[in-house]
Amino acid sequence: MSVTEQLLRVYRVDQQLNGLRSRLKAAERFLGEQEKQLAGIGQQSASLDSQIRQLTATSGDAEGEIKALDEKIEGLRERMNTSNTSKEYKAILAEVNTLKERRSEHETRALEAIEKVDQLKSQRDELSNSKAERERVRGVAVEQRDQRADEIREKLAELEKQREEIAKEVPPRVLETYEELVARLEDEAVAPIEVQDRKRHEYNCGACMMSLPVETMSTLLGSGALTHCVSCGCILYLDETAKSLMLSASKR
Ligand SMILES: [Zn+2]
Predict the structure, then answer these.
(1) How do strand 202-205 and strand 211-212 relate by DSSP bridges?
(2) Do 11 and 60 share a structural domain?
(3) Taking the CB of residue 31, how many other CB atoms lie within 10 A of it?
(4) CB 27 within 8 Å of CB 144
(5) Cα of 191 from ligand 1 centre, angstroms
(6) Mind listing the pLDDT tens digit for each residue in 162-180?
(7) pLDDT tens, 136-155?
(8) 226's torsion region: left (phi>0), alpha (psi -120 to 50) or beta?
(9) pTM of the model
(10) Per-chain residues with Cβ under 5 A from ion ligand 1
(11) Cα-to-centroid distance, 233 and ligand 1 (Å)
(12) The domain that contains 77 carries what CATH number?
C-alpha cells in the first residue's frame, strides 16, 4: 500500500468521525441557543420585577402624601368654618387650594405609577409564558443531545480505535503534514484528482479546480508518494474512477 493510500484510509475514517460528531455538535449548539434564550428571559424578568417594585414604592409614597394632605385640608376646612373675618377665611381658602393642587399632583403620580405597574405585570405574564415554552424546548434539546451522544458513542469508540491502528501505519511526518493541512484547510485538506481530458493530459485538483502538472498524475500512479496540489497545497489522491480510467488507458 502506498503512503497516499495509507493516508487515505485515515482520512476516510476521519470523515466518518467528523460526520458523527457534527450531528452531536448541531444538537449541542441548539441546546446552547435555548440556554442563552432562557438566560435572556431571566434577565428581562428580573428587570421587570425591579421596575415593578420601584413603581409600587412610588405609588405608595404618593398615597401617603395624599393622606397627609387630606388631613391638613380637613383641618383647614374646620378652621374656615370657625373663621371670624372674611380676610382670614380667604387666606385659609388660598392655602386649601394650594394644598389641593399638590394633592392632585400626587394623585397623578400615583395613577401613572399604578398604570405602569399594570402594564409591566402583563409583560411579566407574557414573559413567563414564553419562559415555559422555552423550557419545554430546552427539555427536547437535552433529550436530543443525549440521544445523539448515545447513538454515536459505540460507533465513535470503534472508529477512534480503528483510526489509531491505521494511523500507526502512516509515517509520522506524513501524518503530521496531513494534520496540519486539516487544521488549515479542513474539508479541503485532501482531494481527488479530476481527469478532465485523459488524452490531452488535462487534470485538475478536486479542491481548488486548478490544473495540475502531468507529474502529479504520474507520481500517484507510480509510487503513490505524498503529492500536493501545486495551487492550494492539499493532498491529492486518485479515486477509483480516475484510477480505472488511467489504467485502462495505459493498457490500450
Ligand atoms: Zn488544489
Answers:
(1) antiparallel
(2) yes
(3) 19
(4) yes
(5) 8
(6) 999 999 999 999 999 999 9
(7) 999 999 999 999 999 999 99
(8) beta
(9) 0.69
(10) 205, 207-208, 229, 231-232
(11) 6
(12) 1.10.287.1490
